[in-house]
Amino acid sequence: MAEKRVILFALDGSENAQNALNWYFTKWRKDGDELHGFCAWEHAHLATFSLSAPFKLPSDEWQKVVNETIERVNKVKSQFEKACQQYKVKGHFKEKNCKPGEGICAAAEEFHADLIVMGTRGLSSLRRTVLGSVSDYVLHHTHIPVAVVPTPPQKPASD
Question: What's the pLDDT score for residue 1?
């Protein structure tokens, strides 16, 4: 019997995250793997005042952002669950309001992950320098192996 591997997937609903998930299922999956999908969402960056009415609490704007976040997280969860069902693998999903890099590292520790699988965000080197990179953060703040799956090259359009 093969040793169980615990795999954590960093998911954000992007095509790059989906590519990383697909890479795992088509290139690296083994029977008996325990899969955990993790999605971080963050509201800390929102202003506490309304731009449309500066002296009014932004309840309508806040509710819109909350609803959009719930919708996005539910979509990410659904995509992960569908992939697990397609490959007949049991998967667990967790979401949390936190900074993505910190949340991924904490979830990997919590689940005792053997590997973290994540996609690249596709930032240019200038944007990555200015904004930072979640994959860079994870690589430098965990002792768990990390598979950063690059975006597949674009096929040239045919004439």
Answer: 54
Give the residue among 107, 123, 88 at the shortest CA–CA distance from 9: 107
Pinpoint the alpha helices (H) of the chain. Answer: 15-23, 59-86, 100-110, 125-131, 134-141
Residue 41's H or E segment, with its range, is strand 34-41
Q: Rounded to an integer, what distance in angstroms lies between the CA atom of residue 37 and that of residue 112?
A: 13
- CA dist 95 and 37 (Å) reads 8
pTM for the full predicted model? 0.82
Residues in contact with 26: Cβ distance below 8 Å, sequence separation at least 6, in sequence order? none
Q: Which residues of the chain have pLDDT under 50?
A: 47, 123-124, 126-131
Contact 91, 36 (CB under 8 A): yes
